[in-house]
Amino acid sequence: MAFNFTLPLRVIQAIFALIVLALTAWVASVFHDAFYYHYDSPSQNNFLIFTSIWTFLALAYLLLAPMIMPSLAHKFAVLGVEVLTMLFWFAGFIALAVYISDTIFDFCTGGFCSGLKAACVFAAFEWLLFTATTILSALHVFRSRGASSKPAAEVNVQSGV
Fold first, then answer.
1. What is the rounded distance in angstroms from the CA atom of residue 131 to the CA atom of residue 68?
2. How close are the terminal C-alpha atoms of the chain, in Å?
3. CA–CA separation, 8 vs 14, rounded Å?
4. Residue 97 contacts residue 121 (beta carbons within 8 Å)
5. How many angstroms separate the Cα of 16 from the Cα of each of 7, 31, 72, 123?
6. Rounded Cα–Cα distance for residues 123 and 48 (Å)
């Protein structure tokens, strides 16, 4: 029997999403407090906060729907959630990388700059993880085309005496 890589990837995705959420929330707090309410947190940072929260919702669907209500875990819905989440992470880390590399941050040496850079790196790895699971989902969709999208009926086997 082949090893299923999906669950360990989901756990790592959840851990990385939590790390990015913590870093970006801290950076938003620093922007709010350190600049005496003159500046809002950068929109790129805020988008990664949204993406982290979206990831927790997506992971809840991707992990629980097949177990609790298999009828909700349609293969195209799973693929759609995977693709959308992968695109969110790609857009988020690219936007933050462009913001960090902008000429405004040439002087940036503070802790919040390191937090932004770390969030960008973890977001890039999160994008890679979601790219991997999206490929796995796409392979499942293409390999099972023409087959019924309904889950297989359960067979109850009773043990003999």
1. 25
2. 29
3. 10
4. no
5. 14, 22, 26, 8
6. 8
d(CA 99, CA 48): 13
Nearest to 126 by CA among 4, 5, 21: 21
pTM of the model: 0.83
- Residue with the two structure tokens 């973890």: 122
Of 8, 89, 12, whose CA–CA distance to 53 is shortest? 89
The DSSP secondary-structure symbol of 128 reads: H
- The beta-carbon contacts of 95-99 under 8 Å, at least 24 apart in sequence, are 95/44, 95/47, 96/44, 96/45, 96/47, 96/48, 96/120, 96/123, 97/124, 98/44, 99/42, 99/44, 99/45
Q: pLDDT tens, 108-138? A: 667 778 888 899 999 999 999 999 999 999 9
Residues 6+ apart with CB under 8 A from 108: 100
In the structure encoding, which two tokens stand for residue 64, read together?
Answer: 């629980």
pLDDT digits (tens, 9 = 90+) for 3-18: 577 889 999 999 999 9
From the number of C-beta atoms within 10 Å of its C-beta (0-12, 13-18, 19+), residue 12 rates as middle
